[in-house]
């Protein structure tokens, strides 16, 4: 079975067997995606808010002292979600960035030694190979591929336990429960990975599948998700939806996403809903805030980073996705943008309480496993402008109801991508010093090899790049950059070449530099172009007379009787 689920990429190839540098190869993949899925069943249940005493009691549950093997998904990775057609995969799948280190955090209990077993493509034998590790956490890098998720065995004395990512699929017809192994995908773009199979791949920090690993014993079995009634409705009764049109003051849902190990581009959001009796359009807004958590797992909002907008259409289906792209405004005009995420965030969705429908609700996943990142789902109260209120504040869904939902999450899904930008050659150090007379950048890394360009491996063509200085200023006029994609057979080869030329250094100026940042949302490279020699390097005196001092928060170099700033300019 495994061999039919591979995404295979060619290994990196050397430019020359005798050269001391290598160039990254193009990704060549043989893609066959597992498509076994089922209609996404959900349940509707009534629930009541927990009292403060109930929340405190829930925190005092004793831990199991026996050996339990478990690992969390890598930080910043995501689970493949449900389909826009209302289907869901039997097997869970974790989406990870390819070509970069990925760490699977060990979350075992009661163990003192560990053994990992996992597979990845071996370019030397041109096939998959089994690897092992005895480290507590598993860290490795994978090319563009897929395989079963790793297996972890935890041991203490004579007791052992083994864990591998799985989900239990409950068949309502046969009343049988079957476990399905989970997969790990490593790719630059989850959506593109599945497009060839006509499958959506919006993602979530929580597991959404046709089954769950563990679910609250207080919820009915079956169905991968649930929506809860019991909120105060317009008539004063208790038939309102907690995640939709309720009048109890909880008029927003929050999704917390932990800090990623590797930055990602967030192209938009997709909200899965159920609605009845739609009579008109309902605009929705999702604000993305920088966020932190305290020791009580409470979210503290920072700056507002991005805003997404979407609409429940008047002719919308009774169940499906609402697409919400991000927008920015300039000179009174709105345009779509892609979010660059390199920190923990909180997504606050609001506006659904005004739905032009007799019923509008979102869902939460029934999977309640804590993967070490705390609560993902929160109930919020916002004002008329959508600004979160301090009171009653945020309450995590694990403690909001009298029956705990665990570390669940609302049906807010992400459209992510892990773009990549790296120097193509091992000799490239990201810096070049032009002679005072100016001219083109030329590097000679080895005898017989001369390069008059900078080579970048990029998953994005240069037309999508932003080129500014590191402090977001225009590139100075003395530096000219010519950027071109390498194309073969009318296809972008993932190589971008940059030629750089400097004007002559002006008379009276001994040194100048420009730190230029080449970037796309989710990835960037900084190149340090300089010209001439800094004042510090010009000084040739006894090294014992050179020292570094800090005055009024500024760093200076003292060399004898002379003082220089960090740029090498002499100061009085």
Description of the structure:
There is one protein chain. The protein is 4% helix and 47% strand. The chain contains four helices and 49 strands. It is globular. Mean pLDDT is 85; it is low at 1-33 and 537-544.
Q: Keywords, please?
A:
single chain; 572 residues; mainly beta; twelve-stranded antiparallel β-sheet; five-stranded mixed β-sheet; 4 helices; 49 strands; globular; disordered N terminus
- Beta-sheet strand percentage? over 45%
Q: How would the global form be characterised?
A: globular
Distance between the termini: 74 Å
Q: What structural category do the secondary elements indicate?
A: mainly beta
Estimated helix fraction: under 10%
Compute the number of helices: 4
Mean pLDDT: 85
Alpha carbon gyration radius: 28 Å
Based on DSSP secondary structure assignment, what is the total number of beta strands? 49
Largest sheet: 12 strands, antiparallel
- In the predicted model, the low-confidence regions spanning at least 5 consecutive residues are 1-33, 537-544
